[in-house]
Amino acid sequence: MRLTTVDPATWPGATISAIPDAASIAELLRAEVTSRGSCARWMVVRRVAALLAPVVVAEPERLDDVCDDLERAGDFECAPGAELFATPVRAVELANSEWRIIGSAPLTWLQSKLPGSWTCEGIARLCRVADGEAPSWREKVASAGGVVISPDVWAGFDRAPRAGSGWLGDLDARLQLHPEAAGSLEAAGPFEWAGFSTDGERTVWRSAATAADARLWRARTRWAYWRYAWTSGGPPSVRAFLSLTTDEGARSVFAVAAAAGRPISLRIEGTGDETSLVFAQWLPRAEFRYLSIVTSTSERAGSSVRWKIPQHRATEVLARLRDRLSVEVEGAHGA
Hints:
Blueprint: E1 3-4, E2 17-18, H1 22-36, E3 38-40, H2 41-52, H3 60-73, E4 76-79, E5 83-86, E6 90-95, E7 98-102, H4 107-113, E8 117-121, E9 124-128, H5 134-143, E10 147-149, H6 151-155, H7 165-177, E11 194-198, E12 203-207, E13 216-220, E14 226-231, E15 241-244, H8 246-259, E16 265-271, E17 274-279, H9 285-294, E18 297-301, E19 304-310, H10 311-325, E20 328-330
Parallel strand pairs: 6-10, 16-20
Antiparallel strand pairs: 1-2, 3-5, 4-5, 6-7, 7-9, 8-9, 11-12, 11-13, 13-14, 14-15, 16-17, 17-19, 18-19
Helix pairs in contact: 1-2, 1-3, 2-3
């Protein structure tokens, strides 16, 4: 944790202040959840904020963001009602002697069970061992109650379909088998639905008045989360629909854009030994988990997320994203 001190002689009344980094916040959140086994998300955030309050500046929104990242990365399991559960150790093998460690156990416990060279990059924790020590290290993971898996297995690519025409066909079949009545989501009041459709050059979210033929829809509820729906054309307020989860909605965005001939863009920026991937679109869960493993760090910039990938992995990662999400790559690796 980075602390900044001041001289009270030059600033009377000043106290120690700080801006905690993501790695420090993540460790405190992991320790809190692991010590309890499970607890309400709001309580975890409140307790960590109270712990930091005497010495650091930690905005609740910042803690929430890190908690979001830990949930999506798999360090926590979030049950309905925003209940967080501790998770076991998963060692995702990036190379023969390098692993990304997933789980709610704090770093100090991991270091005592799994010796090696440890580094923390944002919320990511990496362990490297000397050549020849990998077999015995894998045995130590098993002794600690964990498992060693590949990035593809961790992401869940065997269970998550590609965002293409096959996915859209599945949505149509589900809509025919299990349609929900028009307007049935709006018993407590009307939603302001937006449809995802092409405006000539891009596929974007537009109001119901200008996207009457759209099939993918979303609306923000009064509790500030998104509801997604799939129809045969027209908003769910007037047409039968299929409810989608947030993850299904995110996958459908990529599929609809590709089907319209306007795929979602992924921007590439080269920076020395690293390649930065910039997404302005929320990723489906499987692809997010994959990137969270193979990238070194991620950072938010408004609505975009920048993922930093070592150059030697860039070609493989880009090929996987093209295959999974039908993205259009812009930049040095786009050709």
